Amino acid sequence: MKFCPKCGDKIADNFTFCPSCGTDLIQFEEDIEKSHIIDKDSMEEPVQEISLEESASEVVEEINDNKKGPGGEIWEILALIFLGGCIALFIFFIFILLGNPLDGVSNHVTTISTTPPIKATPTQVKATPTQPDKISILTKIVDDYHKIHTYSKYDLFVCSDMAIDVWNIVETQGINAKIQVGNVDDPNAKPENYNHAWVLAEVEPFSYVALETTGGYLVWGSENNNYFQGYSFDNPKELKDYLDKLQHPCPEGYVLGNDNLCHQACGGNTYCTGNSICVNGLCRECNPGYILGQDLQCHQACGVNTYCTGNNVCINGECRGCNSGYVVGDDMQCHPECGSGHYCTGNSICVNGQCRGCTPGYVLGDDMQCHPECGSGQYCPTGTCFNGECIVCNPGYYLGTDGRCYHY
């Protein structure tokens, strides 16, 4: 807990403005540090002690002596003046010894490029007889500016330009000012929800009033404390650096996506989503269930973001393959490859990379001709098929209907 150096009220240690009188504590400390330059070596020299009782007794004795001679009244007056001066000097030394105004003062540096600006606390500033001229100037500035400028929409970047314009005008008039960014409607708004900018002008030492540049009027702390919260910037450059980070939060080569994450750029300020990939500055993607492969062709997905290559096939989300020269069939078995990635089924056989087969009831023979089937997958190269068996009769004999050979 500390005390305001202006009004004496108690304030929290982390406050930068006095909530009672509006004093800017940081500026007050900086001004004190500039106006009180004390040599460190001289501070170490002993201070001569002054005895008030000794000084007073000497003065009284001198007064009594002067009363005895001519002109005693004049000497009495001079002695009283001297006595008063000694008392004032004594009080001054007590103040220096016990209450050095530089104690507790520290340097304050605001670096927008590395740390967020300070957060101002609510400030209430009231006009005093010494302020009317300055307040009249500020009122005229913001009113005249509003008459010739139109506020198109409630946008941080638009109102920031207007705040910079008014800041320059106020500073030109010799009035100290800051540019404030925040949310005048929500006192609990987070920085990502800051949507407005305005000007804070110093109407008396360390006390400010808000200039609503988009509306053309002044705002006091008693009217809306939200104008005294948010981020404070000492000049337009600090504000522009802050806004630039809002617009370009990602490193070079990346863009901010709709999910508020940085994605690798693909041609300008665009990026690829889903399963698409960037090819020569364009996003390429396949239909659902397919993945764009390294050959820039779409392949059926197998598992999560993978696909099968070569002779492999996808089985339960995993790519399965056979030895070279074989392929996995629909029966999940390996079959001799016929052609490129194919195999022959049924009674067909592979002939010069093509599967050759016959109609049902026939099988392909060694002569690459279709023969009536005799038994299971067999045919009779010679003789006659009888009840699933090939019967060959000797020369001069024939096969009878009973399956027996008879002589002609």
Beta-strand share of residues: 15-25%
How many whole angstroms does the radius of gyration measure?
A: 49 Å
User: Largest sheet, if any?
Assistant: 5 strands, antiparallel
- Uncertain ranges: 36-56, 66-72, 99-130
Within the largest sheet, what's the order of strands?
Answer: 6-5-4-3-7
Would you tell me the structural class of the helices and strands?
Answer: alpha+beta
The level of helicity is: 25-40%
Number of DSSP strand runs: 25
| Mean pLDDT, all residues | 76
Kindly, what is the distance between the CA atoms of the first and last residues, rounded to a whole number of angstroms? 134 Å
Q: Would you mind describing this structure in some detail?
A:
Strand 24 (397-399) and strand 25 (405-407) form a beta hairpin. A five-stranded antiparallel β-sheet has the order 6-5-4-3-7. Strands 1-2 form a two-stranded antiparallel ribbon. It has 408 residues and is an alpha+beta fold. Helix content is 26%, strand content 21%.
